[in-house]
């Protein structure tokens, strides 16, 4: 499971920086394009972070060759399901930005 991640690192940093603008833009100017960009960037950001944790802590030396591959496979499945669910929600319901705005406007 080792490899050269030097090409992915700048992309991860660019996604992190892009989230600084996309999150407030999605909340302020909610539309389908921003909702989809938000969903894609958030899922990618969380996926890469959790993948780094899985690679660092679920090592083949400790767990054998099968469990680390299962963990990474499960992470990919969960990330794909999460992205698919968010995109489905954006296209069939009110979207992520409108949902946050609706929750924010709820009064006691």
Automatic annotation (TrEMBL):
A Pfam family reported for this protein in Swiss-Prot or TrEMBL: CybS
InterPro entries reported for this sequence: CybS, SQR/QFR_C/D
Keyword field contains Mitochondrion: yes
Keywords: Electron transport, Heme, Iron, Membrane, Metal-binding, Mitochondrion, Mitochondrion inner membrane, Transit peptide, Transmembrane, Transmembrane helix, Transport, Tricarboxylic acid cycle
Membrane topology of the entry: Multi-pass membrane protein
Residue stretches spanning the membrane: 12-31, 37-58, 70-89
Record localization: Mitochondrion inner membrane
Gene3D superfamilies found in the cross-reference section: Fumarate reductase/succinate dehydrogenase, transmembrane subunit (1.20.1300.10)
Principal subcellular localisation of the protein: mitochondrion
Family: Belongs to the CybS family.
Function noted in UniProt: Membrane-anchoring subunit of succinate dehydrogenase (SDH) that is involved in complex II of the mitochondrial electron transport chain and is responsible for transferring electrons from succinate to ubiquinone (coenzyme Q).
Protein name (Swiss-Prot/TrEMBL): Succinate dehydrogenase [ubiquinone] cytochrome b small subunit
The organism of origin for this protein: Molorchus minor
């Amino acid at each position: 499971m080792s490899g050269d991640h030097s090409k992915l690192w700048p992309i991860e940093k660019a996604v992190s920086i892009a989230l600084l603008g996309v999150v407030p833009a999605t909340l302020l100017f909610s539309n389908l394009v921003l909702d989809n960009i938000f969903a894609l960037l958030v899922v990618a950001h969380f996926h890469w972070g959790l993948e780094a944790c899985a690679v660092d802590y679920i090592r083949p030396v400790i767990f054998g060759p099968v469990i680390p591959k299962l963990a990474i496979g499960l992470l990919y499945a969960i990330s794909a399901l999460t992205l698919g669910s968010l995109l489905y929600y954006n296209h069939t319901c009110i979207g992520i930005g409108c949902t946050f705005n609706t929750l924010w406007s709820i009064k006691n």
